[in-house]
Specification:
The protein is mainly alpha-helical and 146 residues long. The protein contains 7 helices and 2 strands; from the N terminus they run ββααααααα.
């Protein structure tokens, strides 16, 4: 069981709620596979002994892993990993896929932190805090205009 918090009447869990943006992350990985926009260049692919076809296979296995994660026949993460063949690919391709996911997640974190804060302030705890911060900023803006 994961830790949850009640936010606005909704139970929020950091372990569960990343699933909401999984589609976005995998779509970004797929774009990089098909368009060759990887954090490394083709020289790095060669050094790691892999290619874009192998990267596409790792990405497909990752999708299969996610499908198996909701299948009640796979009771543990280990069973879902084994059933997806996720780690049956070359180390180089697997490392590049997970490195790319890390880069994309860093962008998600950056965006989320920006969305949760205003002009570099700490994230706000409630709607009331957000409204008060907005009023303060508006007041400052109006004073500057006068």
């Amino acid at each position: 069981m994961s830790l949850q918090a009640l936010v606005g009447g909704r139970a929020v869990s950091t372990a569960r709620d990343v699933a909401y943006h999984f589609g976005f992350v995998l779509n970004e990985v797929a774009k990089r596979v098909t368009k060759g926009h990887w954090p490394t260049n083709s020289e790095s692919l060669e050094k790691l002994g892999t290619n874009s076809d192998e990267i596409a296979k790792v990405t497909q296995s990752l999708c299969t892993f996610m499908e198996k994660s909701i299948d009640p026949n796979y009771r543990t993460m280990q069973e879902a990993l084994e059933g997806s063949s996720l780690f049956d690919h070359s180390d180089g391709a697997t490392i590049l896929v997970f490195a790319t996911i890390g880069i994309i997640e860093s962008g998600v974190f950056f965006s989320g932190i920006r969305d949760a804060s205003i002009l570099g302030n700490q994230p706000l705890a409630s709607q009331r805090d957000l409204i008060e911060q907005a009023r303060t900023l508006l007041d400052e803006f109006i004073r500057k205009k006068e």
